[in-house]
C-alpha cells in the first residue's frame, strides 16, 4: 500500500520503517529540513536500538523515502498517518496545533479517497475535529481513524513489529477494513486487532498510560512508607508481583517517571476530564506523587550533606529518562541536576547515549565525562538515576578508590545494600532499609 507518515520523530520513524518492512511503499515526511537531510544521508536523528538497520534496509530496497514535501506525500498516499508531536500546552491540555496544521494540508491535497489515521496521542474528540478541518477544504471523500501507538522507547522496533494489540477506532467501515488489511501481517500468529469507535480508541491510549503511571506512583508512595516503617520495597515488590493478578511489570520504585508521554498524557486526560466536569482523582494523585518523587533524590543527597552542598562534587550516572534511549524529555536526572546546581554543587555526569542532548541544555554548567568512571573521579557522592546495563555491576573496588568519599545513592535499587555496606560504602536506595 502507498503510505504517508507525517512526522519523523520516535513514533513516525519507527512506524514508517516498520510499515515499509512489511512491503508497503512509505514516504516519511517532516517540516524539519535538518532531520530529513540527516535521514537522506543515511543518519538516524535519534537513538533507538535496531532502528538504523531497519531504515537502512528499507531505504536501500526502495520502499522507504524521506522528504519535506508533506503535500506531495499526502497526494500519493492511500493512508496518511499523523505522527506529529502533541506536547503539553500552558493550560495542561494537549497542544493540537501540529495535528491541526497537518489536517489542513490534507484537506487541501485530497485528490482521491484516503484514510487519515492519528498515531499521535490525541484527546477524545480529535477524530471529529480532524473530520471538520479536512472537510472544510476537501473535494473528495475521506475517512478518519484513531490508531494510537503503544510502543515504548528503547524497545520501540520490537513493540511496533510485534504489537500486543492494534487499536483501530473508526466509525467508517471502509477505513476499518483498509487498516485491518494493513495490520494483518503484523498479527499473523494471533489476531490482536481490536476494532472500536474513534472516541473509545482515543481514550484507550490515555487509559493505558494513566494505569501504568499510577502503578509506578503507587509503588513510589509505598517506598516512602517502607522507609518509614523499616521495610524494604524491593522485597515487597517481589512479594506482590508474584500474584498473577498483579504481575511483575511496572512495579519498580525509582526517581519518578519521566519521558515525553506519561507526564503530558496525565495532564491532558485530567484536562479532558475537567472539561466534562469529572475529576480523575487517581490520576491527579499519580501526578502529585510523581512531582514529589522527582525531588526525592536531591533531598536525600542534600540531607546526607546536612544541606551544605556548596563546593561538593556530585557524580550522576544516567541522564536519559530510561535506558536504551537518548531521550531526556522530563527526565528525573534533570530535576536532580537543577537542584544540585541551585545548591552550589558541581555536577560530573555520564550517560551512554544522552550526553549530546544534555550538553545542548546545560553547556559548560555541568561536566560530561566520556567514561562512567571518569564522571565518578574525585566526587563526594555518586548517584545512579538511570539503570543502564553498564551501571548494574560496576567495579565497586575501583569506585571506592576514585570517589573522594564512598557514598552511593541508588535511584533505581539496582545494587545490593548489604554487599556495599560490607565494602565500606554509605548506601542509600529508594524505599530500602
Ligand atoms: N515517543 C513515544 O514513545 C511515543 C509512543 C506512543 C505515542 N507517542 C505519541 O506520538 C506523537 C509523536 O511523538 P514523538 O515522540 O514521535 O514526537 P517527536 O517530537 O519525536 O516527533 C514529532 C515530529 O513531528 C514533526 N512535526 C511537527 N509539526 C509538523 C507538521 N506540521 N508537519 C510535519 N511534521 C511535523 C516534528 O518536526 C518532529 O520531527 C505524540 O503525540 C506522542 O504522544 C509517542
Ligand atoms: O516500573 C517502572 C517502569 C517504568 N518506570 C519509569 O516510567 C517512565 C516511562 O517508562 P516506559 O513506559 O518504559 O517508557 P515510554 O517510552 O515513556 O513508554 C510509555 O509511553 C508511551 C507513549 O505514550 C507508550 O506508548 C508506552 O506504551 C508507555 O509504556 C520512565 O521514566 C521509567 O523509568 C518506573 O519508574 N518504574
TrEMBL record:
EC number(s) reported in the record: 1.1.1.22
Gene Ontology terms, MF aspect: NAD binding; UDP-glucose 6-dehydrogenase activity
Keyword terms, alphabetized: NAD, Oxidoreductase
Statement: the UniProt record of this protein carries the keyword NAD: yes
Active-site positions on this chain: 261 (nucleophile)
Enzyme class: oxidoreductase
Highest taxon listed in the record's lineage: Bacteria
Reactions the enzyme catalyzes: UDP-alpha-D-glucose + 2 NAD(+) + H2O = UDP-alpha-D-glucuronate + 2 NADH + 3 H(+)
GO BP annotations, alphabetical order: polysaccharide biosynthetic process; UDP-glucuronate biosynthetic process
Residues reported in the UniProt entry to bind substrate: 150-153, 205, 250-254, 258, 322
Domain UDP-glucose/GDP-mannose dehydrogenase C-terminal: 315-417
InterPro entries: 6-PGluconate_DH-like_C_sf, NAD(P)-bd_dom_sf, UDP-Glc/GDP-Man, UDP-Glc/GDP-Man_DH_C, UDP-Glc/GDP-Man_DH_C_sf, UDP-Glc/GDP-Man_DH_dimer, UDP-Glc/GDP-Man_DH_N, UDPglc_DH_bac
Pathway: Nucleotide-sugar biosynthesis; UDP-alpha-D-glucuronate biosynthesis; UDP-alpha-D-glucuronate from UDP-alpha-D-glucose: step 1/1
Binding site for NAD(+): 30, 35, 86, 121, 153, 264, 329
Pfam families per record: UDPG_MGDP_dh, UDPG_MGDP_dh_C, UDPG_MGDP_dh_N
Homology family: Belongs to the UDP-glucose/GDP-mannose dehydrogenase family.
Stated name of the protein: UDP-glucose 6-dehydrogenase
Native organism: Sorangium cellulosum (strain So ce56) (Polyangium cellulosum (strain So ce56))
Amino acid at each position: 500500500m502507498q503510505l504517508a507518515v507525517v512526522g519523523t520523530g520516535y513514533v513516525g520513524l519507527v512506524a514508517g520503517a516498520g510499515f515499509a518492512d512489511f512491503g508497503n511503499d512509505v514516504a516519511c515526511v517532516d517540516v524539519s529540513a535538518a532531520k530529513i537531510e540527516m535521514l537522506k544521508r543515511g543518519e538516524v536523528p535519534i537513538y533507538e536500538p535496531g532502528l538504523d538497520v531497519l531504515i537502512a534496509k528499507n531505504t536501500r530496497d526502495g520502499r522507504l523515502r524521506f522528504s519535506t514535501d508533506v503535500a506531495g506525500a499526502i497526494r500519493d498516499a492511500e493512508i496518511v498517518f499523523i505522527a506529529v508531536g502533541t506536547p503539553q500546552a500552558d493550560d495542561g491540555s494537549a497542544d493540537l496545533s501540529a495535528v491541526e496544521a497537518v489536517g489542513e494540508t490534507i484537506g487541501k491535497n485530497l485528490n482521491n479517497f484516503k484514510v487519515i489515521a492519528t498515531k499521535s496521542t490525541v484527546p477524545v474528540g480529535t477524530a471529529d475535529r480532524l473530520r471538520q478541518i479536512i472537510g472544510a477544504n476537501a473535494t473528495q471523500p475521506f475517512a478518519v481513524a484513531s490508531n494510537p501507538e503503544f510502543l515504548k522507547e528503547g524497545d520501540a522496533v520490537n513493540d511496533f513489529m510485534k504489537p500486543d494489540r492494534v487499536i483501530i477506532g473508526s466509525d467508517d467501515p471502509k477505513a476499518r477494513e483498509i487498516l485491518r488489511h494493513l495490520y494483518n501481517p503484523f498479527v499473523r500468529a494471533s489476531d490482536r486487532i481490536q476494532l472500536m469507535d474513534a472516541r473509545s480508541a482515543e481514550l484507550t491510549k490515555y487509559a493505558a498510560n494513566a494505569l501504568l503511571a499510577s502503578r509506578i506512583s503507587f509503588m513510589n508512595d509505598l517506598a516512602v512508607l517502607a522507609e518509614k516503617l523499616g521495610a524494604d520495597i524491593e522485597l515487597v515488590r517481589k512479594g506482590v508481583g508474584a500474584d498473577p493478578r498483579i504481575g511483575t511489570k511496572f512495579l519498580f520504585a525509582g526517581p519518578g517517571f519521566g519521558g515525553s508521554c506519561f507526564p503530558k498524557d496525565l495532564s491532558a486526560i485530567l484536562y479532558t476530564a475537567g472539561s466534562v466536569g469529572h475529576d480523575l482523582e487517581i490520576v491527579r494523585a499519580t501526578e502529585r506523587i510523581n512531582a514529589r518523587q522527582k525531588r526525592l533524590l536531591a533531598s536525600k543527597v542534600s540531607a546526607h550533606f546536612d544541606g551544605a552542598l556548596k563546593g561538593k562534587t556530585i557524580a550522576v550516572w544516567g541522564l536519559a529518562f530510561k535506558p536504551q534511549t537518548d531521550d531526556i524529555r522530563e527526565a528525573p536526572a534533570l530535576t536532580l541536576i537543577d537542584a544540585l546546581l541551585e545548591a552550589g554543587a558541581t555536577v560530573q555526569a555520564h550517560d551512554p547515549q544522552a550526553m549530546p542532548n544534555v550538553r545542548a541544555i546545560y553547556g559548560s554548567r555541568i561536566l560530561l565525562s566520556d567514561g562512567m568512571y571518569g564522571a565518578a573521579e574525585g566526587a563526594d557522592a555518586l548517584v545512579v538515576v538511570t539503570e543502564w546495563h553498564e551501571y548494574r555491576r560496576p567495579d565497586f573496588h575501583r569506585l571506592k578508590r576514585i570517589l573522594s568519599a564512598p557514598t552511593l545513592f541508588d535511584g533505581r535499587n539496582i545494587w545490593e545494600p548489604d554487599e556495599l555496606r560490607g565494602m565500606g560504602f554509605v548506601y542509600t536506595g529508594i524505599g530500602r532499609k
